[in-house]
Amino acid sequence: MGKKQIEVLNKMKGQFIDQATAKGLDPAKLTKIWTDWEAFAQYAFNKSHSTCYALVAYQTAYLKAHYKSEFMAAVLSNNMGNLDKITFFMEESRRIGIPVLGPDVNESDVKFSVNQKGQIRYALSAIKGVGDAAVVGILEERKANGPFKSIFDLTKRVNLRTVNKKSIENLALAGAFDGFGKYTRAQFFTADTKDGMTVIDKCLRWGNSEQNNKSMNQNSLFGEAIHVDASEPVLPPVEEWPLLEKLKKEKEVVGIYISGHPLDSYRLEINTFTNSTLKQLTEQKDKELKIAGIISATQTKVSKTGNQFAIFTLEDFEGTFEFALFGKDYIQFKNYVETLGALLYITGRYQARYNQPDNYEFKISKIELLPDIRAKLTKRLTLRIPAESVTERITDELLALFQKYPGKYPISVKLKSDEEQISLTLNSRKVTVDISNELLDDLHTIEELEFALN
After folding, report:
1. pLDDT digits (tens, 9 = 90+) for 291-315
2. How far apart are CA 158 and CA 355, in angstroms?
């Protein structure tokens, strides 16, 4: 019935009537039952499914509306094996105003969880190389004796046979110790010039020593010995890794960027000067597209004819796309695509291959470095302010910023009043600014203000 195979049903009708009649049932009632079944087969299967899906849709919509953090944490936990879906749902969480924070040994759980502030914490079990036994050991100790005060406190308290060196290294790379506020991630992996030991090596040695001393005192014959905790070693100050290196190492153990994205500093350029994301690229055929991203994989190969070509993967906030460069394109653009982590701004078309109308490829016509795009394409800085929000304070703040960051770019101020239904554009004649990241960061602090590059 579910497959609507009416021919099969028709063959079975006679058999059903004959065998049921032989057992003393009324043929008229049997015919009525079969007629009802035939009617059921025409609509009831679809109807029952649509009813169930409607109910599930209502329930999930209700949960997402009223328990946003908990709902998104559950959805993320349900997709822990699929990084593409995790990335999608993390972006969706941020879109609806719920931060997704990195893992933390004092807040994270086995799966994605919600902290007391309603923020989502990344799952400890989603960190590569940590292992279920190590996660369970950390959580059980935390539950029994309270939050960890430092990495030394952690190595002193947990079972170091399950929470081993590899587990601690990957927790550090993922940012699970950032919450202690004492250390940079680079500190854990910096070797001492005297003995060649890293900070993690010293943490483990100190933790083992503390556990052994405690065990020896507990096993004393008369029990009179009292163990006094040794002072935690002082870590040497080490400058944090550059952002790209930090995020790269984070992605190696988590699979995605959590604490930031290499493109974060270029969101304004991407929003202003691109007209497609990588995810949307194949939907826009035969149009000039401008896209941006970071190279996450690249390789040079040799074709059967002996010519070199390149295949590289570009990644943006929403997804990835694999590009290929052959022949003259390879010679022209190879220097741009040889380096992992290169930030690129690409112009091209998603078009049919030569003599293959049903086979499409992205044909690159131009590659530029994304960090150069702001200076190349920006003509002015536009500020948008609701007319009702213009106050002496905002005016003074803007003037101070213009004086702080002098440069070559003119300014436009667009005032709009919804109440009066009027809009006014004011263009600067003498005041010009340098559109630096520092200026943009300061502009972000003025809540009433929106800005764009033109």
Report:
1. 999 999 999 999 999 999 999 999 9
2. 65
76 and 221 in a common domain: yes
pLDDT confidence band for 41 (50 / 70 / 90) = confident
The string of pLDDT tens digits covering residues 256-287 is 888 888 998 899 999 999 999 999 999 999 99
Q: At what angle do helices 165-174 and 199-218 cross, to 10 degrees?
A: 130
Domain carrying residue 424 = 378-453
DSSP 326-342: -HHHHHHHHHHHSSTT-
Instruction: Indicate the residue type of 410.
Output: P
Q: Is 31 inside any structural domain?
A: yes
Predicted pLDDT at 418: 75
359 & 384 share domain: no
Domain count within the chain = 4
Burial 25-57 (b: 16+ CB within 10 A, else e): eeeeebeeebeeeeeebeeeeeeeeeeeeeeee
Which two tokens mark 285?
Answer: 């055929």
Residue 231 has pLDDT above 90, yes or no: no
Residue 91 lies in a domain: yes
Q: Rounded to two decimals, what is the model's pTM?
A: 0.74
- Concatenated DSSP letters for 214-277? HHHHHT-SSS-----PPPPPPPPP-PPPPHHHHHHHHHHHHSS--S--TTGGGHHHHHHH-S--
Is residue 223's pLDDT more than 60?
Answer: no
pLDDT range class, residue 154, cuts 50, 70, 90: very high
423 against 43, higher pLDDT: 423
**Residues 270, 243 share a domain:** no
**CB-CB neighbours of 185 under 10 Å:** 21
Residue whose pair of structure tokens reads 């959805």 in the numeric block: 75
Looking at 254, 282, 313, the residue that finishes a domain is 254
Say yes or no: 149 and 218 in one domain. Answer: yes
